[in-house]
Amino acid sequence: MAGNAKTSQAAVLPGIIALAIAAVYLIALLAVEKQSLIISLLAVGIIVVIAAAGFGLLDGVSRAFSDHEDALGGFAILALLAVGVFFHEDHFVLLLVTTVLLYSVATLGLNIQFGYAGVLNFAGASFFGIGAYTSAVLNAHTALPHLIVLLIGGLLAALIGSLLLLPVLRTRGHYAAVVTIAFALLFKTFLEVNDVLGGPQGMQVKGMTIMGWSFNDNIEIGKVSLSFYINYFAISVLLLIGAFIVVRRLERSWIGLNLDALRLDETAASCFGLDVVRWKITAFLIGNFLIGVAGAMFGMVGSFVAPNNYTFADSLILVSILLLGGIGNPWGLIVATFIVVVVPEKLQTIQEYRFLLYALLVIGVLLFRPEGLLPRPVRRYFPGWQP
Amino acid sequence: MDVGLFAQYVMNGLMLGMMYALVAVGFTLFFGVLDIIKFSHGDVLTVGAFVALATFAGLHAAGFNSQWLDLVIMLAVATLAMAALGMLIARYLVMPLRSAPALNTLLITLMLGTVLREAVRLFYPQGANPKPFPALLPQNSIDLGSLNLRLDNVLMLAAGAAVIVGLQFLLNRTKLGLAIRAVAQDEETARTMGVNFTAIVLVTFAIGSGLAAFAGVMNGLYYNEINFGIGLYLGVIGFSAAIIGGLGSIYGAILGGFLFAGLQTVGTVLLPFASAYKDVFAFAVVIAIMAWRPTGLIQEKISERV
């Protein structure tokens, strides 16, 4: 058996090459300032990907990723760190990349709900906002250690989310959608009219401090000075790794199997004795917890929270990241988050038109590639196992 | 509270409810024939209101100054244009996705809504700012005690009621309505009975979108102002109204619309210290209703197909 598994293993090299190219491309894209260069870089990127797909080069990459996920995960972290090191003194780029990382954590949470359990949640940004406001309030009024604040942010998002459990469990389809949509609108209106939480102006968030190490100070090592965002970048990388592992393990475990079963056919799943209610609750709470943790971190990174950042439109952006990436595939989500967050930021000339173009992009994906950019592959029970 | 003030609140609630009901009826019609939610409905309403405004500007420039004629032409142009837009949306965005998961349809129409909204904001001259909407209805009002009954509100209510009665007549008394109801009930049987499915779907989308344009013009006349965001707000409320009423039921949609307006009004009256919370209150009640009646007040008949 072991020998068989060995021979069917794909080469790991294409995966490493793909990651290296992606890292270099990302660094180039982030470093370039001139609009014409950015546009040509994006065009080159799209053409290269389409050409590579046409020549079948991407098959090797996807096989490498499915057979050597852990090793390539390590390389992906290295690639990410390379980006961080390259931009070690650039505030803006580090903030942008950190935003991508935290949005990825949030969409990973959403992915458990939408992608595995099939529980709709159109209030992702609201739960993200609950996390952010938690860190704003707790950092200002208490001396709780900030890592605990992250945890509380997640727990609070899960707790407030559990208020919606009854309607979410009892409803299906469109009726379930309206529950979370109503919550998203309610939440934003509540923040706006509420004086305690700063009203429409929002409130400041104190930066993170862990054991006396203040995250908001620039770092000097010898002659090299690092942007203070490198702190946030590092901790966000850790958060993303943690969330990724949790989601991946969850998916591979029998819990993931149960979730898949109840998404695909609730009636059949319950006929086979699966506790539909229990698994829906599990998925909804874990998802909201991850979103809340990411939000709490994001509040501290951005040092500012306001109702306008947590609207229904933002929830939709999270959902479309999910769809663009390929629902259920964590790798796809991270790629999609990079595209959705970085491209509009870099293309300042289209800043005004970005929502328009972005909506058109999603419509295009839905019409011509409804399964997303990187569709979720068939479940693999062991590395190297061919279905 | 004295009677006049109470009547004033009722009047405001009825006006809002009429607009919500008109939007909700659209949602429920689309759901009836295709089992989908078309989320761009609210933004179709926005576009309709802006088309009416542009028509008014055009008429004004051409030297037309008769209020009634202006209004009739505006309504006709907006309604027809939106009916056409609705048909295009159905034909090229919604019908191709029929076999895809419901989530995809929901998202594609949400994104289309964003496209429409952003297009109005970016391409209508100074579309990002609120636009004054001409007051084309008589501005007289009658004072009944402390109730100030505005003639234009009464006219709009009557017009809205007439449209809903007309729609009811169309659905229940004409051959077209029979076909629409047949498709809503069972697509395949309707096809075998010789109903042209595609045509009926397109006509239904035209009717629903035309209603949205009507509601958009009504909204403009009521507030004397429109902006590119009205549709998002009205769309979500209309959707909630259709849902709490029970999808697929016209009466449910109307009931839901007036119920939501009622909730907002009650929220304003009962929470005088913070009437800003009226939407929070209304949406909280929507969530509670969903927990109580998961398929709406007039319940949709769902059978599990295994």
3D architecture notes:
The complex is a heterodimer of chains A (387) and B (306). With 387 residues, chain A is mainly alpha-helical. Helix content of chain A is 72%, strand content 4%. Chain A has 17 helices and 6 strands. Chain A has helices at 2-8, 13-31, 35-54, 57-67, 69-86, 91-117, 124-141, 146-162, 165-170, 173-193, 229-252, 254-264, 266-271, 276-302, 312-325, 330-346, 354-368, and strands at residues 203-204, 209-210, 213-214, 219-221, 224-226, 304-305. In chain A, the strands form 3 sheets. In chain A, strands 1-6 form a two-stranded antiparallel sheet. In chain A, strands 2-3 form a two-stranded antiparallel sheet. The longest helix of chain A has 27 residues, at 91-117. In chain B, 73% of the residues lie in helices and 4% in strands. The N and C termini of chain B lie far apart (55 Å). Chain B is globular and about 60 Å long. Chain B contains 11 helices and 4 strands. In chain B, helix 1 (3-34) packs across helix 6 and helix 1 crosses helix 9. With 306 residues, chain B is mainly α. In chain B, the strands form 2 sheets. A two-stranded antiparallel ribbon of chain B has the order 1-4. Chain B has a two-stranded antiparallel ribbon with strand order 2-3. The mean pLDDT of chain B is 87. At the A-B interface, helix 9, helix 10, helix 15 and helix 17 of A face helix 4, helix 9 and helix 11 of B.
